[in-house]
Amino acid sequence: MCFYSHLMAHEIIIHAEGLTKVFTAKTAKVAAVSDLTFTARRGELVAFLGPNGAGKSTSLRMLTTLISPTSGTARVVGRDIRSDAAGVRARIGYVGQLTSGSFSQRARDELLSQGAFYGMTRRDSIRRADELIDSLDLASFANRTVQQLSGGQKRRLDVALGLMHAPPLLFLDEPSTGLDPQSRANLWEHILHLRTQHGTTVFLTTHYLEEADRYAERVMVMDRGRIIADDHADALKATLAGDVLTFGFSDAAQAADAREVVARLTQAEITIADDAMSFTTPEGSRLLPAIVRELDAAGITVRSATGVPPTLDDVFLALTGRTLREAGEGEAAGESDDADGTASAVSNVDREVDTTTTGARS
Ligand SMILES: Nc1ncnc2c1ncn2[C@@H]1O[C@H](COP(=O)(O)OP(=O)(O)OP(=O)(O)O)[C@@H](O)[C@H]1O
Ligand SMILES: [Mg+2]
C-alpha cells in the first residue's frame, strides 16, 4: 500500500511538450499560448495564475482536448491529446470558465445525467450526486431547474458536474469566481478532501491569489502565453519578492546610525527616508527581532518595526514590472475583474500581519 502510494506520487499525469496555440482572427494572428512545456505528477495541486488574456483557458482547453494545438502535444493521464482525445476525456474532469447554458432540468437530475453520460450506474450516480449535494451545499436548490439558479448557485452546480465521475485529474477554470465566501470555503474543503481521500490531481486557474498561495503547492504563472514562473508559492515569494521590513526612529540621525548597525546583519539594499529605514529580505521573520535587539544593544531606540510579507502579486511585479491587475488586456471582463479586485483587497489585509507569519501556510 505504502509502496503503491509512493509510486502514485511520482507518476506523471500531465506531460505537455511545446504546446502552442495561434488563433487566426480576421486580420491578425493571436499567439495565445507559446511553447507550453511542463509535467505534473499525480496528486499535485497546481494553481495556474496570470492576467486576463494570458492564455490560461486556452492551455486548459488544449489539455482537455476541447481545441487542438497549433503545434506541440501533451500526454494527459497517459493518453495523447491528439491521437486519443476520447481516452483523455474519459479520464479527466473539466469545469470550464463559462457556465453552461440554462437547462430546464432540475439541478439534481443534471448531476444524474452527467453520471449516466460517464457510464456510471444509476445507483452510483444517485449516491455520488447526494454526496456532492451535501459537500458543496447544494441541497437548498437541488430541486430547482438550472435556469432558476443564481450565478453562484449555477457555478457550484458546474463544479459538482465536473466532479461526478470522480476523475483522477481535474481541470477547473476559475472554479471560485463568483462564489460567496462560504461557498468558496466549501469548494476548497471539497477539493482538499478529494486530494487526501482519492489522490486527485487538481489543475486550476484562479484570480484569487490568496487561494493559490494558501492551498496550492505549486504555482505556475503565465504571461502573454508563456510560463514565467513555476514553483512553490513560498519559494517564489522568497526568491522573487521578500519581506519589506521598515523601522522608525526618533530622528534622521538615529536612522543613519541604525543603518550602520543593520548593514552588518544583511546584504540587502537599505533605504533611509527621513527617520525611517527599510529594506527587502527573504528572511524577514528571523531578521526583524534580531535587528530590534541589536539596535537596542547599540543604544538606538526603535520606535516602530513592521514586516510586510510578500504576496504573489509582488512576485508577478518582480517578474514583469507590472501588477497582475495592470497586466490584464484592456478592460477585463466584469467577473474576472471583480475577482481580481477582491483578491487584492484580501491580500492587503494579509499584508498587515506581522512577519512571523511569513512563509507559514495553513
Ligand atoms: N477563439 C479565439 N479566437 C481568437 N482569439 C482568442 C480565442 N480564444 C482566446 N483568444 C485570445 O487568446 C488569448 C488568451 O485567451 P485565454 O482565454 O486563454 O486567456 P485567460 O488567461 O484564460 O484569461 P482570463 O483570465 O481573462 O480568463 C487572449 O488574447 C484571447 O483574446
Ligand atoms: Mg480564462
Essential attributes:
362 residues, alpha/beta, Rossmann fold, Alpha-Beta Plaits, 14 strands, 42% helix, disordered N terminus, binds adenosine-5'-triphosphate, binds magnesium ion
Describe the 3D structure:
By secondary structure, this protein is an alpha/beta fold. It has helices at residues 2-10, 56-63, 85-91, 107-117, 122-135, 151-163, 181-198, 209-215, 233-241, 252-262, 284-297, 312-320, 324-327, 334-351, and strands at 12-24, 29-41, 45-49, 71-76, 79-80, 92-95, 169-173, 201-205, 218-223, 226-231, 243-248, 271-273, 276-281, 304-308. The chain has a six-stranded mixed sheet, with helices on both faces. The chain has a four-stranded antiparallel sheet with strand order 2-1-4-5. It has a four-stranded antiparallel sheet with strand order 12-13-11-14, covered by helices on one side. Helix 4 (107-117) packs across helix 5 and helix 9 crosses helix 12. The radius of gyration is 24 Å and the shape is elongated. The two termini are 28 Å apart. Mean pLDDT is 84; it is low at 1-7 and 330-362. The chain binds adenosine-5'-triphosphate and magnesium ion. Residues 56-57, 97, 173 line the site of magnesium ion.
Global mean pLDDT: 84
Categorize the overall geometry.
Answer: elongated
Based on helices, strands and strand pairing, what is the structural class?
alpha/beta
What is the strand content?
15-25%
Beta-strand segment tally: 14
Low-confidence stretches: 1-7, 330-362
Distance between the termini: 28 Å
Percent helix among the residues?
A: 40-55%
The CATH architecture designation of the largest domain is 3-Layer(aba) Sandwich
